Amino acid sequence: MRKLKKLVTLLAALALFVVPFSNTTMTASAEGGTTYYIKFMESDNDWRFQIGGWDDSLGYGSHLYYLHEHIKDGDTIVVDGGPGQQCYINIPEVRLANVTSKGANVANITAKEIDEVYALFDGTIILNGHVKKAYVYEKSVVNFNNDVDYLEVICNTDSKVHAFIGVQGTVGHLYAYGANNNVKFDCYNFKPGTFSMYDGNLNVLPENYTTTPPAASGTASTPAASTGSAGSEYDDVPKTGENTLPYVMVLGVLALCVCGKLALRKSFR
Amino acid sequence: MSKAQKIISAFLSLLIVICLVILGYMLYSDKQDTDRQQELVASVSPEPLPESSAASDADTVTESVDPSANNSSDAEQDTSSSPPEEELPKVENPYRDAYLANPDMHAWLQIPGTVIDYPVMWTPEDENKYLYLDFEGRDNKNGSLLLDTDSCLSPLTTNLIIHGHNMKSGAMFGNLTDYEKPDYYQKHKNIILYTPECQRNYEVIAVFRSQVYKKSDQVFKFYKFFQADSQEEFDDFYNNIKNLSLYDTGVTASYGDRFLTLSTCVYHVKNGRFVVVAKEVEPGDSYLPVRNSES
To answer: Would an 8 Å CB–CB cutoff place B219 in contact with chain A?
Structure first.
């Protein structure tokens, strides 16, 4: 009886390994949603898009009219370059997962909500719709006409930031840093319509924001980009080790099973 | 044996078989990932370059004419490549097809004589995007080489940091730790980084073990150095890497020089890193623009 109880305990311990392992897979699930890559076609004097990335061999791409027809919640828009003629994307009923400006000149996007915005390569972009997280690089020019939950401003080439940003709504959390992680601003709760940054200089009266984080509410969730605040107590550096945990768990279960069988045999004798 | 014991024994036997099947599948899957990675890289690699422009000739590359004379006064003006004074004609980028196939690729890293011959991905919006994705964006345990988001090729930062997985199979940066042996270093002093603008050549200057520290730790963090705006900042980095280096390479650097840092995980301490730092020397070919062959 005592040996049987031991075995039951062993099985219970096994279950502890098996159950978490069954959820532990090696694969990182890929993001859903379609990416619409928009470029300006000089030959057509118009903006066109292709799905996925841009491939010149596929021709000029499709009219933006079709993008408006097919875009849906969770999709991504990339706007690449341009001559200064505005690229209008008007989809007020759609929630976008990501909007990326690759030096867009100029993108004007209206959406219900945007999860992430990346303004790269000194482009100019106008956004209508609530933005959850925005990352503005170098000398990009961005105008947010609604609220921004988290705004990160980065300059990789200088200790000072150089972006040009205006926000008509509120800004939950501003985190701005230059090269070598030289933090310039770490501020919270900007009042509506008060946020203005010109060449990296924050033109906001002190009474319109705070420098202490809000008490408990999760205004700014951990940013997706590397470096920056929150999360681990360790510096944010890509983890380039080989994940051997699945092997360890399987071998652990195997070892326990073998021990269990041996114990059973011994008890039988 | 009682009935209960028989049932338990049968259950354990079944579990053992399941574990063995799972283990076999995992090993097979890993091998598939590695093979697919190699095929993918081979498919986007160009034909081997002729001897004259490749850096397999170690003598040609390491004949650095006093790099401080080359770079110190040009540190500001030289934002991308630093082609020789004589205007050599630009040639087609050998990795043009790879750049066009995936815009997230921003360079190609090669260490002649090793398996390290991979595209380098740069995704500032999500540094870890390609941590477990291959060049085509499919799940792969080996991942891709990542250019640190705080590094920049245009304009070029003082230090470029590339992260890669330490794979037991030897893929990616699995063999980077071989640089611990001075003999290995002697045979593999040179590193090449093919960028959209030009071929950048480097020679190894320091090899050391380090780690990722806590945010609050006030220590030398090799992964935080990207730009030296002053002599002091440069000296801080340079002196630290020389002091940490496992052996003296005899290579020196001065303010204005640029570096390439390769980093991978090791397990001597928690969050351990193995680091190879190389100094930029004479560049190779300059390249025509990759996209749309404009101008």
So the answer is: no
Return the structure tokens found at B196: 């959209």
Residue A106, preceding peptide bond in cis (omega within 30° of 0): yes
Torsions phi, psi for B244 (to 5 deg): -80, -20
Alpha helices by DSSP H, listed for B45-107, are: 58-62, 67-71, 96-101
Between residues B176 and A53, the one the model is more confident about: B176
pLDDT tier for residue B205 given thresholds of 50, 70 and 90: very high
Q: How many residues does chain B have?
A: 295
What ipTM describes this predicted complex?
A: 0.77
Continuous segment of H or E residues that includes residue B105: strand B105-110
Strand partners, B166: B172
Residues in chain A: 269
Query: What is the Cα–Cα distance from B132 to B138, expressed in whole angstroms?
Result: 8
Q: In chain A, which residues have their Cβ closer than 8 Å to the Cβ of B233?
A: 180
- A58 sits in the region (left: phi over 0; alpha: psi -120 to 50; else beta) called alpha
Domains of chain B by start residue, with CATH: 27-280 (2.40.260.10)
How much is the pLDDT for A37? 93
Most confident of A29-33, A201-205, A233-237, B49-53: A201-205
| Residues of chain B found within 8 Å of residue A264, distances taken between Cβ atoms | 1, 5, 8-9, 12
Dihedral class, residue B135 (left if φ above 0, else alpha if ψ from -120 to 50, else beta): alpha
Give the DSSP per-residue string, A214-226. -SSS-SSPPPSSS
- For tokens 């071998």, what's the residue? A251
B162 Cβ under 8 Å from any chain A Cβ: no
B204 touches B179 (CB < 8 A):
yes
B221 neighbourhood in chain A, CB within 8 Å: 235
Chain A partners of B19 at a C-beta cutoff of 8 Å?
Answer: 250-251, 253-254, 257
Of A237, A246, A267, the CB nearest to B223: A237
B126/A225 touch (CB, cutoff 8 Å), yes or no: yes
| Pair of tokens at residue B156 | 């070029």
Q: Which residues pair with B204 in a beta bridge?
A: B278
Identify the residue whose tokens are 């304009």.
B155
Give residue B257's pLDDT. Answer: 95
Closest Cα of chain A to B60: distance in Å? Answer: 31
Per-residue pLDDT of A74-96, as tens digits, reads 999 999 988 888 899 999 999 99
Read off the pLDDT of residues A151-198 as tens digits, 9 standing for 90 and up. 999 998 888 899 999 999 999 999 999 888 888 899 999 999 999 999
Chain B residues with CB-CB distance to A156 below 8 A: 149-152, 157, 226-227
Residue of A nearest to B124 (CA): A225
Query: Residues near A89 by Cβ (< 8 Å), separated by ≥ 6?
Result: A38, A64, A67, A68, A77, A107, A108, A109, A110, A111
- What residue ranges do the domains of chain A occupy? 1-26+243-269, 33-241
Which residue in the set A156, A246, A253 is minimally distant from B152, CB to CB? A156
Burial class (CB in 10 A: 0-12, 13-18, 19+), B230: exposed
